[in-house]
Amino acid sequence: MITRILDVSSEPLDEECIKEASEILKKGGLVAFPTETVYGLGGDATDKEASRKIYAAKGRPSDNPLIVHISEFSQLEAISSGLPETAKKLADAFWPGPLTMVVNKNEVVPYETTGGLDTVAVRMPNNPVALALINESGCMIAAPSANTSGRPSPTKASHVYEDLSGKIEAILDGGPVDIGLESTIVDLTEDVVTILRPGYINMDMLKEVVGEVRMDPGIVYNDKGTTSGAKPKAPGMRYKHYAPKGDLTIISGDEDAVISTINKMAAEAIEKGSKVGIISTSETAGKYTAGEVLIIGNRSDEGSIAHNLYDILRQFDELDVDIIFSESFATPKMGQAIMNRLLKAAGQKTIEV
Ligand code: AMP
Ligand code: MG
Which fold, 4-209? Predict the structure, then answer.
């Protein structure tokens, strides 16, 4: 199959492209599209064959459920049962936006879409292309991230093309995404709202709306693994996530000590014949003395770090580095989300200096 690239990166939105993509979805085909978090790989959420095709194209384990993307709150009511009041409160506060809610499903959504679960994950994306596609097609769109399973989530159409060219009908190219990390996932099926995956919408923001919020004990890590020994409730958080080809270690602590430690370790590795990559910030890049130094963003703008994380991991794969050292980014608002992804990519390897 030849994957068509439909350019929707300029305004006003090209309606013909949206119509073409909608026709593909209505016929049971697959279209990748931008959201404000990462690119999604979409199919009709109520069509079990479309869901099967999504798993096949990504090489995704079939027990890892998909997120259903909607454009109106009534669609959440239409596919859920026993919707709690907190859903409306959270939707009023954060939708459209990077918050996914897990609720009990009804028969409208097939088990192929929910990985066999009786719950369904739902989100209203805050992106004009995504919303236009949902509205024009009339479909609720099941969409996981549009990468090959095991690779970093795509934040540009070119990342999607690298992974899925020849496997899906089309890619709507809306330019680089805004946030760059996947949505926050909250579970609303228990007494207390529980964060299953950290994201841009953080614990404090959620608490302001619903009061008590807890973190799934299965995703709280220290350097020896999960602190509770519990399994993460979101199936996707149980899989080994993206590990770059290079062996990644995070160095955390006082800035000067981090820089001198990375410089020392990089020099030693290069001496032994390894190719070394360093994840730096615009504030620190000039202080590194060896290796391929890439700038992830500005420390003064934590959004820039989230935005570039996946792209930088893909760049180091292309550079074929053997060893990667990264600074730590425990920033105030998005730190939990950024470090959750970075620690996974590092296999939890950190050195405190
Ligand atoms: P992705 O869109 O690729 O980030 O994948 C969707 C994420 O949502 C994965 O981590 C899934 O495990 C998670 N997810 C989807 N549906 C559910 C559900 N019903 N219960 C818990 N987690 C879910
Ligand atoms: Mg994913």
Answer: DHBP synthase (3.90.870)
Distance of alpha carbon 323 from alpha carbon 339, whole angstroms: 19
3-state helix, strand and coil shares in percent for the chain, rounded to the nearest 5: 35, 20, 45
Note the pLDDT of residue 224: 56
Q: Decide if 80 contacts 106 (C-beta within 8 A).
A: yes
Rounded-to-integer distance, Cα 179 and Cα 35, Å: 9
Q: Dihedral of CA 140/146/152/157: which sign?
A: negative
Residue 120, strand partner residues? 103
112 Cα to the center of ligand 2, angstroms: 17
DSSP 80: B
Task: Say which amino acid occupies 205.
Answer: M
How much of the chain exceeds pLDDT 90, in percent?
Answer: 90
- Residue showing tokens 């550079």: 319
Angle at 152 between CA 322 and CA 296, to 5 degrees: 70
d(CA 310, CA 266): 22
Domains 4-209 and 247-352 are alike in CATH topology = no
The model's pTM: 0.95
* Domain residue limits, the chain: 4-209, 247-352
Express each pLDDT in 238-249 by its tens digit: 876 777 889 999
Mutate to test the pocket of ligand 1, among 102, 122, 187, 188 (most ligand atoms within 8 A of CB): 102
Q: Which atom of ligand 1 is nearest to the CA of 117?
A: 19
Provide the CATH topology of domain 247-352. Rossmann fold (3.40.50)
